[in-house]
Amino acid sequence: MNRAIIYSLVVLFVAGCSSTGHEAATAAHADAPPNARQLSASEIQSTVIGRKHSSVTATGYAFSETLNPDGTAVIQISSESLQTGQWIMTEDVICVSYKKYGKECNKVLTDGVVIWFVDSVSNKTNNKFTVK
Questions:
Q1: Counting Cβ atoms within 10 Å, is residue 55 exposed (0-12), middle (13-18) or buried (19+)?
Q2: How many other β-carbons are positioned within 10 Å of the β-carbon of residue 108?
Q3: Which of 17, 23, 105, 109 suits 47 as a labelling partner, its CA being 20 to 30 A distant?
Q4: CA–CA separation, 39 and 45 (whole Å)
């Protein structure tokens, strides 16, 4: 009897832990709210460039990224090794590429608190970030 109770508690605990990661990943890739507005190139420069921004991957791993003023990019996903890449901005779209992860081109939206990187072609949210 005690064994069955302990087993049930362990299963519930593990299920709770796994759903938290899934919920964070879902939230980090949800659409921006209707009041979010697209940033211009100069606003992207002042809001995003040179500042660390943090989010969660689609699979639930925390990561941080910095797009440096010199056009280089640095990303650290959970316990993986640090990856370097580059970014370029064309009009109001910023493209970031890493050898390991590929290239993404995004519009940047904000509600004044957080930012969303939204795919410039599909209009799907790639990530919701907090900026430090």
A1: buried
A2: 25
A3: 23
A4: 9
* 92: nearest Cα among 110, 72, 112, 65: 110
Q: Classify 85 as helix, strand or coil.
A: strand
Dihedral sign (CA 86, 90, 94, 97): negative
Cα distance between residue 113 and residue 61, in whole Å: 22
- The residue type of 29 is H
Question: What are 100-120's pLDDT values in tens digits?
Answer: 999 999 999 999 989 999 999
> Where exactly are the structural domains of the chain?
2-131
How far is it, in rounded angstroms, from Cα 59 to Cα 120? 22
Q: Note the pLDDT tens digit of each residue in 64-110.
A: 999 999 999 999 999 889 999 999 999 999 999 999 999 999 999 99
Cβ atoms 108, 117 nearer than 8 A: yes
- The model carries a pTM of 0.78
How far apart (Å, rounded) are the C-alpha atoms in residues 20 and 8? Answer: 19
Structure tokens at 125: 């949210």
